Amino acid sequence: RKEVEQDPGPFNVPEGATVAFNCTYSNSASQSFFWYRQDCRKEPKLLMSVYSSGNEDGRFTAQLNRASQYISLLIRDSKLSDSATYLCVVNPSGAGSYQLTFGKGTKLSVIP
Amino acid sequence: ETGVTQSPTHLIKTRGQQVTLRCSSQSGHNTVSWYQQALGQGPQFIFQYYREEENGRGNFPPRFSGLQFPNYSSELNVNALELDDSALYLCASSSGLDNEQFFGPGTRLTVL
Questions:
Q1: What residue of A is the nearest CA neighbor of B48?
Q2: CB–CB contact A99 B58 (8 Å)
Q3: CB atoms closer than 10 angstroms to residue B56
Q4: What string of H, E and C letters represents the secondary structure of chain A?
Q5: How far apart are CA A77 and CA A52, in angstroms?
Q6: How far apart, in Å, are the Cα atoms of B64 and each of B45, B58, B75, B79?
Q7: What letter would DSSP give residue B106?
Q8: pLDDT band at residue A95, thresholds of 50, 70 and 90?
Q9: What is the per-residue pLDDT across A27-82, written as a single tens digit (0 to 9) for each?
Q10: Contact (CB<8Å) A100/B35
């Protein structure tokens, strides 16, 4: 089983749609969780950290279920500028070590 | 931009050759991590340097080696290049082991 698995995608959605990405991770001892965004041929950039209590940043909502080892990202009211690859990222190590494990990514295309 | 720079931006090598990639970390950052991103995949952790010492290594053979200098810049060296080493090589710096990593733009290596 892969350490971090994501929906294969691609997701093609119209502007204004709501889209959800799911991710599972295999290491139950994982300490921290993130969603990164990567534009074509660019470096990954942190979109948001994911907390057990859930967190929201504008149109973006992230959820973590430690019992199910499941992470989600919801994007509401999609914009053309949201088109990118979304990477689910886990830090499987404990404190004092920050070695990110990335999923393969899910490509999102928002269509006018 | 993150302030993390990498050089060169692109590189073409042939099988069996050796390559050195360079990374300048963001001001104030003492930790550098290196990742390999093959086409269509998420980045994979190679190793991490903290205050000039290796602090963890991913599943990469010994022909992948690195250094971190007193100014916290870093090098990634790959010996005996193979075709599968063709990828985007990303470095990321952070202000400590437990802190957010900021990625540079990457070096795209092609091995022919």
A1: A99
A2: yes
A3: 17
A4: CCCEEECCCCEEEECCCCEEEEEEECCCCCCEEEEEEECCCCCEEEEEEECCCCEEECCEEEEEECCCCEEEEEECCCCHHHCEEEEEEEECCCCCCCCCEECCCEEEEEEC
A5: 24
A6: 12, 10, 11, 7
A7: -
A8: low
A9: 888 888 999 999 998 999 999 999 888 899 999 999 999 999 999 999 999 999 99
A10: yes
Distance from CA of B25 to the nearest CA of A (A): 15
C-beta atoms of A43 and B105 within 8 A: yes
Q: How far is B97 from chain A (nearest CA, A)?
A: 5
Q: Is the minimum CB–CB distance between A70 and chain B shorter than 8 Å?
A: no
Residue B44, beta-bridge partner list? B36
> Does A98 sit within 8 Å of B97, measured CB to CB?
yes
Would you call B58 helix, strand, or coil by DSSP?
A: coil
Q: Which residue has the tokens 């350490």?
A: A3
Q: How far apart are the first and last CA of chain B?
A: 32
In angstroms, the CA B51 to CA B93 distance is 12
Chain B residue set in contact with A, beta carbons under 8 Å: 2, 31, 33, 35, 40-45, 48, 55-56, 58, 90, 92, 94, 97-101, 103-106
